[in-house]
Amino acid sequence: MTPGNSTVVRFEDVSLHFGDTPALDHVSFEMHAGETFVLLGAAGSGKTMLLKVAVGLVQADSGKVSLFGQEITHLREQDLFDIRAKVGILFQEGGLFDSLTIAENVAYPLTNARSLKHAESSTNGNGARSTEDRVRESLRFVELEQTLDKFPNELSGGMRRRVGIARAVVAEPALLLYDSPTAGLDPITANTIIALILKERDLRNTATIMVTHRYLDGHLMANFRYNPNSGQTERVVRNGKDVGQVTTKFLVMNAGRLVFEGTETELQASKDPYVRKFVREGGA
Amino acid sequence: MSIRAFRNIFRAPHYADDIFMQMDVIGVGSLFIVSLIGLFSGIVMALQMARALTQYGAQGQVGQIVAITLVRELGPVLTAVLVAGRNASGIASELGSMKVTEQIDAMRALGTDPIQKLVTPRLIATAFVLPLLTIISDFIGLAGGYFIASTMLGLTFSEYWTTAWQALEYNDLAQGLIKPFVFAIIIALVGCFYGMRTSGGTQGVGRATTRAVVSSSVWIFVLTAFITYVWNRVFVKQ
Lengths: 284, 238
What we know:
Oligomer: heterodimer
Strand content of chain A: 25-35%
Number of helices of chain B: 8
Number of domains of chain B: 1
CATH architecture of the domain at 1-86 and 207-284 in chain A: 3-Layer(aba) Sandwich
Helix content of chain A: 25-40%
């Protein structure tokens, strides 16, 4: 997977406070098309808020936030809808609509007029697929095609998370944001979720930001890729041979500040005790 | 939020399905309890008035007093308080749950304006069905009054209904319809307001629900006093 030149997300000295507590403290970084960012940090360090600020769900107090080259810091909600249509988000709590079936939940980005515009343009060359086809395809992607007519409360936590992924990817967005996709899941389900995230990233070359407090998730993102021929995930370096480049950066947040930005090797070599804690506890 | 909710009434997209669903939830769902309370408020009013009016030999005026009291004040206020208890709480808890489970954020992230999708349909539905519920409640209350007037005071059908009908002026009917319309706006907006700003998990949902009911009920009593005062000053010849 090769990163493109175009900037997908840019934070320039972004700060956000809730009362006296800083949620984001002078955060700056830049992410390009095709890149993967793994955002590590303890609970309350500002990871989720960073994602919300990135798509304008929360407005920063100061600094500039750009999405796909357009500054969104002071855009009105109505104007943000078109830009958000290019972004898929998996929320920590799933964010599935209780009153809608799984099929309706996954179809939501497509049946919404503004998102549809983007979704239609992204299907160029695929012909006009109906919403139902795309919903089925998306649910098949997360191996939950049989749940079409069920409601979210009929599914397990892991299944809801997978439906959340199906909804996030159905409109084929250029950027995917995952907020703690493996939080509260058993290791087997967590690995299934990471495998799905890898599959989506590597099949569509989607820029990905994944918030997590598990170093292992980041390690998998940095060292594994999806092989469309075998339909399996595989190590990037196997038997000493590089089977494909993965550009994964690690960001570490502490009390709203970005305290580390770099590759996994740099992360493992970091002397910062806070950063080291993640690597040590991850045990990878 | 209120300004955006009103502005969205005239802006696309319009969520007609959501409006009809809310009408069903609020209107049809409240019909039985509103009818029951209307019936018993008419009965109690007639019982109280029968005793007082009999002392002056004016028991024939029961229909008149029940009609004026119910249509001008009791009908709109009791119906609104019931709907506030049932629906302001329902709205606040539903939207509050959506807020704490990030469904509102998801909606915004997926390109839907939550005010347009969630608040405006509830506002339109409540503003439409509360006056209708009030009319039904008033009528059933008058019927309850007739039941007492006929069984305890021996009034005939025409004696009761003629005095009741003649006692009402257009002005009373207008007042009796404008009040529930205003109360409906308050109930919907207060419920949505507390729901949309819920924080703090399930405890927060509970707090939002309680605040919505208390706040909308207080507003109903404050506004009925205010509307009655203004109405009497502007429309009623002294």
